[in-house]
Amino acid sequence: MRNVLIRIEYDGTAFYGWQRQPGRRTVQGELERVLSVLCGGNITIDGTGRTDAGVHALGQCATFSGEFSIPADRIPRAANGLLAENRMKQGDIRILSAEDVPAGFHARKSAVGKTYIYRIYNAKNMPVFLRNYRYNVKKQLNTDAMIKAASFFTGTRDYSSFMTASDDFRGSTVKTVHAVNIREEGRDISIAVTGSGFLYNMVRIMAGTLVDIGTGRIPADRAVEIAAACDRSAAGHTAPAQGLYMAEVYFSTDDLVKGTEKY
Amino acid sequence: MRNVLIRIEYDGTAFYGWQRQPGRRTVQGELERVLSVLCGGNITIDGTGRTDAGVHALGQCATFSGEFSIPADRIPRAANGLLAENRMKQGDIRILSAEDVPAGFHARKSAVGKTYIYRIYNAKNMPVFLRNYRYNVKKQLNTDAMIKAASFFTGTRDYSSFMTASDDFRGSTVKTVHAVNIREEGRDISIAVTGSGFLYNMVRIMAGTLVDIGTGRIPADRAVEIAAACDRSAAGHTAPAQGLYMAEVYFSTDDLVKGTEKY
Fold it and tell me: What is this structure's pTM?
């Protein structure tokens, strides 16, 4: 019985999110369809995280197991060929790498953390070509205020101020965020959040709150209270899906630490 | 009776091209729908050029006339609001500017030339985020050979080697190309073609032929014959739609000359 880990990039625009759903085009569904062809059998995959409709990935991970003969290093090219729209145009999912891993290794359970990046385009007008890939914030952002506020959104604490409540949520709202790094490059502003665990919409609510602080809609000195409130209504708006990227998954604390500096 | 000129940017991915078609989403159809709301009447527009499905525009132009009261400079913002997908996401068409022009001024008939840009990403692998916006050429391109060949694709001559034949074509295959400029920036290669007139698929066939020369599939020294053959089968393949951008329309020869240097 083999166990294979794949790393995946995708443009989330045309998907109903990650999770397989009957009759809908999802990332998991597309990958399972293509991997089943290559492996000659019914393949089901476990992803590190479920992304919502419109959310992208630069390095989502997934594991799957079974009996099949295709060498792992031939999977990316073969799968990407099957995922292509036509001979002249690649698909909106790309397998970046595939490797055999020991039995028991699991894309979600073996992960020790991940980095999400939230991308903002801060200008009055944005080229249409970025509409699926950035949140266009028209008001000028005070990034100094955002950076200062972001320092209060780290550590091991209850993050329920940054969670969209859902009926089926079970588990702890205490998570560890290792770093929230804000970088500015011309009109592009990125917010990279590296943590060991994330609540539903956590990065999008953090990003929206930081935007509200950057525009002055929320006073910067309220960041401490917001984090401490453990109440969604204390935080800012939920930033839209198209700005969010699952950037990297870490399977060792060494890589996790490196990630906090890299992004 | 007012006559208004608009400049338009669009992402051609989700459109069945420029031209209005019943029951299909087209750029002209969307613009007419929105302008009719703003102008309080049935507006029809004349575009400078019809772009095919998947082809983009950085500066398409169109004119429309009628009796309406909205000031021209308020049209872009109002139209772009109506074109938006939702409050958090802009649309895939953006009106860049609008201005009143004299009666008789016509987006197509008054134009003296235009520039198209064809964009290539030259690398074995391309991020999925560029799939709708670049032609991914995997083999390394010899841009020196391409630049040399491109010099034979200019001037006033019969360009029928670079035309997809169509039954309803009437008119001359003699056109003037003022410049074919090839620029390289890392993995991005752009081919800018500035001319006074273009045949159907002319830029895409020129780009495909230059790619075939760049990969060595067509010997570089055949460029002269290809141009002189006046025969589509002498040229290379038709490069795919997603790499093509209508970049700028010129209404004066001064601007046309500037365009040949700008791109």
Answer: 0.96
Is B128 within 8 Å of A93 when comparing Cβ atoms?
yes
Residues in B touching A126 (Cβ below 8 Å): 90
Residue B127 at interface with chain A, using a CB cutoff of 8 Å: yes
Q: Is B133 on the interface with A (CB under 8 A)?
A: yes
Q: What is the ipTM of this complex?
A: 0.95
Q: How far is CA B140 from the centre of its chain?
A: 26
Residue positions of A annotated with a catalytic role: 52
What the block records as the tokens of B91 is 């649309």
Instruction: Please compute the mean of the pLDDT values over residues B230-257 and round it to a whole number.
Output: 97
Question: Is B128's CB within 8 Å of A242's CB?
Answer: no
d(CA A17, CA A53): 4
pLDDT at A167 over 80: no
- pLDDT (mean) for A96-122: 98
- Please give the Cα distance from B182 to B229 (Å, whole number): 23
Q: Which domains does chain B have, with CATH numbers?
A: 2-100 (3.30.70.580), 113-251 (3.30.70.660)
- The minimal CB distance from B131 to the residues A92, A125, A242 is found for A92
Pick the residue from chain B with its C-alpha nearest to A9: B128
Helix axes A75-83, A27-39, angle to 10 degrees: 120
Chain B residues whose CB is inside 8 A of the A128 CB are 9-11, 90-94
Q: Tell whether B121 lies on the interface with A, counting CB pairs under 8 A.
A: no
Specify the pLDDT at position A165: 85
Query: What residues in A contact B211, CB-CB < 8 Å?
Result: none
Cα torsion B211, B214, B216, B218: sign: positive
Q: Which residues contact B84 (CB under 8 A, 6 or more apart)?
A: B90, B91
Answer yes or no: are the C-beta atoms of B111 and B198 closer than 8 Å: no
Those residues with Cβ within 8 angstroms of residue A185's Cβ, 6 or more apart along the chain or in another chain: none
The DSSP line for B90-116 is --SEEEEEEEE--TT--TTTT--EEEE
Q: Which of A118, A115, A119 is nearest to A248 (CA)?
A: A115
Each residue of A212-251: pLDDT tens digit? 999 999 999 999 999 999 999 999 999 999 999 999 999 9
The DSSP-derived string for B210-248 is HHHHHHTSS-GGGHHHHHHH--GGGS-PPPPGGGEEEEE
Asked if the Cβ–Cβ distance from A85 to B136 is below 8 Å, we say no
Instruction: Give the closest-approach CA distance of B241 to chain A in angstroms.
Output: 9
